[in-house]
Write a structure and sequence with these properties.
Layout (H helix, E strand, L loop, with lengths): L2 E5 L3 H12 L3 E6 L5 H5 L2 H18 L17 H25 L3 E4 L1 E6 L2 E5 L6 E4 L2 E4 L3 E3 L12 E3 L12 E5 L3 H13 L2 E6 L10 H13 L3 E4 L3 E7 L2 E6 L4 E4 L1 E4 L3 E3 L6 H4 L22 E3 L10 H15 L17 E3 L5 E5 L2 H7 L4 E6 L4 H5 L6 E6 L6 E7 L3 H14 L3 H5 L10 H7 L1
Parallel strand pairs: 1-2, 1-7, 2-3, 7-18, 9-16, 10-11, 10-16, 11-12
Antiparallel strand pairs: 4-5, 5-6, 8-17, 13-14, 14-15, 19-20, 20-23, 21-22, 22-23
Bound molecules: flavin-adenine dinucleotide (FAD).
Amino acid sequence: MTSVVVIGGGPGGNQAASRAASLGARVTLVERDVVGGAAHLWDCIPSKAMIATAGALSFSRRMGGLGFSPVASPSYVDYEALRHRIKEITSRLQGSVEELLASQGVRVIRGEGRLLSPQTVAVSLPDNPEEELSADAVVIGTGSRPRVPDWANPDGIRVLTTREAYPPPDLPEHLVVVGSGVTGVEFVHMFSSLGSKVTLIVSRQHVLPHKDAEVAAALEDELLRRGVQLFKGARAVSVDQAGGGVVVNCDDGRVARGSHVLLAVGSVPNSEHLGLEQAGVKVDKWGYVTVNQHCQTNLPHIYAIGDVSGKLPLSSVAAMQGRKVAEHIMGLHTREHRHIDYDKAASAVFTEPEIADVGLAEAEAFASGRKIRVTKVPFGASARALINDDPRGFVKIISDPATGVVLGGCVVGSQASELISVVALAVTAGLKVADLVESCLVHPSLAEAIAEAAD
Ligand SMILES: Cc1cc2nc3c(=O)[nH]c(=O)nc-3n(C[C@H](O)[C@H](O)[C@H](O)COP(=O)(O)OP(=O)(O)OC[C@H]3O[C@@H](n4cnc5c(N)ncnc54)[C@H](O)[C@@H]3O)c2cc1C
């Protein structure tokens, strides 16, 4: 029987363990903290739970448009109740993952794993002697943690990383957010909806530097409308605490003052103390474990998945890598196995409006000289968006002008993170614009805009 040891129980690790067990492997999962990983404890789940509350509050302020009059929106969020709610969601999810793993016969060990040799994993247990596990295959899914710039010293009170920001003991009166990537803008949306004054330090000329410029502009308009102050083209270089608040100094001389500062400047891989060097596993200069298209390291029976593998840092990608790796270990790749195509991974920014995209972007096609057809419809023309009183945003579809094959697309607007699934399916399955246009969809629905945009 093939024995598999998985180190790290995040979305990558637990999917690898579950799939390997379902394919007949003897699987041990080593997790030092919580099965579900950082994704459940600090990242995806708590942030989206906070955003659900923030979104409801923001919606209540717009309810006048739906005929409620006069509208008294709630003015107080019970942070204790919110903390409890987040904990409950996390433990329910954790419980269901643990139940599934147990039903599949996966042994879960609470402890810290490291490679002793290419075939042996040592597990340090809190109250027991170290345990050694031998393995035919090892999967490293140890994730990442927030990057802390050398000029900042997070204290979890006024200077926060993303792991200390929700829910705060009290709502920050004025939050300075450093970093305008996906995580940074989600926190801006979260706290500005909850009622904090927010200043965002944007090191480039627009927020979301890796997204379509039109998409970024739509979000900036909304942030400005809410009164978020944008420091564009400024890099934070130091943060001081003074007079019960924070002072963030930028390289161009501008100074942002607030009650709290949140650092959202990327992440670093958890690849230290794993015995990688000792076992001969290569890491790159940033500490990410180097992998091939099957997520194999330079030692073919040792795999790395999720954030530690340095590919797209998304839960969904980690989970997909986990499943694929299990299939590779169990020999399924010889059949209908497809490599993970990171270019076809859908992603979303949970702001207001929501932003989601998949596949080829317009700027990317332009840079490579590839001919594309771009079609776009605004939600202002959608019956459902008007009924919902939220006609913000648009759908854009990118296709091959010669074949009609859908290459990519983006959705900006209410429920974009759900709607993009239709475009993602089209991109993954190689569908044509005609397939989207000829799908007879529900009316009135937001998805109709996708079919119209494809036409
Ligand atoms: C604020 C924020 C919000 C996010 N929101 C989203 C989102 O909405 N959607 C999305 O797709 N992605 C989101 N992400 C990204 C997502 O959280 C990560 O991509 C995902 O968690 C990566 O999964 P993973 O399996 O690699 O590792 P993780 O979830 O980081 O889990 C790794 C696990 O390994 C364990 N571990 C580490 N070292 C050891 C060791 N030596 N021994 C035993 N256990 C060990 C850790 O305790 C941890 O439980 C967000 C990120 C952040 C920062």
